[in-house]
């Protein structure tokens, strides 16, 4: 059974870098038929796509966040990671990692989500 | 970026009701649209992909239709476990974008 689990600090200071890792179990992150993505949801608001990565390192970012986002993959650990720099209170959200199945594309498995609060 | 407009933003319904949610895209997205259900405090769950394909394990009372710019999610007979927020997501082009959500509440 495929599982995704987000991990990382739940509190980040303003202007610092938010870092989260998604650990994938039950499937290989190196499978060719999938991307791996990050989506966030501010408290009480809707969903926002952050970006996707392919195991070879190809990345796709939301232009609204592109200047501050880096998504990377570590195939040896079956993990992928999110870094968001220069955070403000507006980046406070639940961050989800998800598997994006290709052809046709859809997010078919999601992590449970990790709440990250930006506060001094 | 492609904008998705969902309507209504919320609705009240009773168990057994037929419920219809619409999603309109700002441009032609063929049939590259999915529907997700999110319950309070939980991750979204895929219901429908490429507009009308039912994800494995999802009850058949859920159905999707549409192409181009106009799409519909229908719940044929609302069950107690269906009270949730529903989102559409366009898979046609980057950046991927979600609709604003439709909250289905108990009447």
Identify the biggest protein-protein contact and residues per side: A-B, 22 and 25 residues
Helix content of chain A: under 10%
> How can the largest sheet of chain B be summarized?
7 strands, mixed
SSE pattern of chain A, N- to C-terminal: EEEEEEEEEEE
Shape of chain A: globular
Verbal overview:
The complex is a heterodimer of chains A (120) and B (107). In chain A, 0% of the residues lie in helices and 52% in strands. Chain A is an all-beta fold. With 107 residues, chain B is mainly beta. In chain B, the strands form two sheets. In chain B, strands 2, 4, 5, 6, 9, 10 and 11 form a seven-stranded mixed β-sheet that branches. In chain B, strands 1-3-8-7 form a four-stranded antiparallel β-sheet, with no helix packed on it. Chain B is globular and about 35 Å long. At the A-B interface, strand 5 and strand 10 of A face strand 4, strand 5 and strand 10 of B.
Q: What tags apply to this protein structure?
A:
heterodimer; A: mainly beta; seven-stranded mixed beta sheet; 52% strand; globular; B: 107 residues; mainly beta; four-stranded antiparallel beta sheet; 11 strands
Short structural description:
The complex is a heterodimer of chains A (120) and B (107). Helices cover 0% and strands 52% of the residues of chain A.
Topology readout:
The complex is a heterodimer of chains A (120) and B (107).
Chain A: E1 3-7, E2 11-12, E3 18-25, E4 34-41, E5 48-53, E6 59-61, E7 69-74, E8 79-84, E9 93-101, E10 106-110, E11 114-118
Chain B: E1 4-7, E2 10-13, E3 19-25, E4 33-38, E5 45-49, E6 53-54, E7 62-67, E8 70-75, E9 85-90, E10 97-98, E11 102-106
Parallel strand pairs in B: 2-11
Antiparallel strand pairs in B: 1-3, 3-8, 4-5, 4-9, 5-6, 7-8, 9-10, 9-11
